[in-house]
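F.,

This is the one I mentioned.
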């Protein structure tokens, strides 16, 4: 089911969103069939990339993390993505009343989960953590994620496209705030001694 939805969202998103909406997926099924597997891609690839290849800035030697440090970061990153999908879904449900839409939480979480598909998939680039390359490849994935949200929200939330445009923009704003909050929390943790451990 996950592969079918992935290919559908990439090739004919509007049609696939309608199929996802008609499935009425439960939270557990949505996570088990989609989120748990896809969220593992950036976490696992990030672990491999930071321990086997490392970052390279200019002509300097690659900077790599210790296995224990990379594993801890990968696990925390994975859990953070699972929580983020649920949190955005909850925020979508909370904001829905403003736009005359009331959908059950599973529908809102499905919208959040399937919208994030391109970001999960592009996580494979973490195998080779080169900043400029990740940036170049990541921008189109981010753009397509936004596109999926604008296409999927009116279908999943059953509202007009005019209202959905404003709703989608609000969801993006909430997502940006959540990202800043996660970055701030990361900086605080590093300040309290939870910074990454490097091999050299």
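My design for it:
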């Amino acid at each position: 089911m996950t592969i079918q939805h992935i290919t559908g969202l990439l090739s004919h998103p509007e049609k696939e969103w309608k199929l996802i909406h008609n499935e009425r997926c439960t939270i557990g099924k949505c996570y088990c069939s989609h989120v748990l597997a896809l969220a593992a891609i950036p976490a696992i690839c990030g672990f491999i990339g930071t321990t086997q290849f490392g970052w390279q800035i200019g002509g300097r030697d690659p900077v790599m993390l210790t296995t224990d440090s990379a594993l801890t970061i990968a696990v925390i990153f994975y859990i953070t993505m699972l929580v983020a999908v649920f949190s955005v879904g909850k925020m979508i449900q909370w904001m829905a009343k403003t736009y005359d839409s009331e959908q059950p939480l599973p529908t809102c979480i499905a919208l959040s989960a399937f919208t994030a598909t391109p970001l999960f998939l592009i996580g494979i680039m973490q195998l080779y953590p080169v900043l400029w390359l990740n940036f170049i490849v990541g921008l189109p994935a981010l753009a397509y994620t936004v596109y999926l949200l604008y296409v999927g929200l009116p279908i999943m939330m059953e509202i007009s496209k005019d209202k959905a445009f404003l709703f989608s923009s609000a969801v993006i704003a909430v997502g940006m705030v959540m990202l800043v909050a996660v970055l701030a929390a990361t900086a605080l943790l590093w300040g309290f001694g939870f910074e990454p451990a490097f091999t050299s």
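The two ends are 44 Å apart (CA to CA).

Talk soon.
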